[in-house]
Design brief:
The protein is of the alpha/beta class. Helix content is about 20%, strand content about 30%. The protein has four helices and eleven strands, in the order ββαβαβββββββαβα. Helix 3 packs parallel to helix 4.
Amino acid sequence: MDHVEDEVARPWRIEADIAVAIAVGLSRLRRGVEALAEVVSATARPHDSQPPDLYSHSEQVGERRIADVVAGLDVQDLYLNERTTLHLAELAPLRHLRSVSINRATAVTAAVSPGVPVEWLSIDAAEIDLPPLSGHPTLWGLKLASRSPVAIGALANLPALAHLDLSGAHVSDLHRVADLPGLRVLELSLAQWRELRERDALPTGLAAAALNGFARLKEADEWATWLRGAAGPR
């Protein structure tokens, strides 16, 4: 089923003919489940208790070390903003962390410790070093935005990776998405989808796809027609 939306402001999406086509909404579902978990946790506390937010934390990092920013925290959802250089190994003390968003950084080394059970990671940085992320056991969702080329070959060593958004990233080896057999949801720009088409590098297990950024109606229709044919019957 194709969804026709505002051709400038919203992504175009196409869903493969399989029972779990709702997977295109995975990111929204993830946030909904997390919000529900927060409500359940809150209702389980005594009504006269008003503790600080133990679930989510957002911080303007500036020139501080991540280790100093997260000292004393035990949150599940973390937002780190406006930092020159970040090394995610410093998140190691957060043993219940599930979601991390890095915004407007200069350089990020994605060395999340295997002992930190992160499931969703979003990085917006000029430079991103991905190989240190290799082997992380629980990461199922990854969103990247970069200004410098980023290599994604190391993603093949993420056993749980199912949702990948590269539409804001400058990817030097985009064809390597075909090496991700567990990938179910892929979000790319029009130029990136065209590159995959030219290289015949469409991942084989996709359940859902998104065309992000600007696309004219004709271009979106051509993309949807190609993707439906390339995915083939399931």
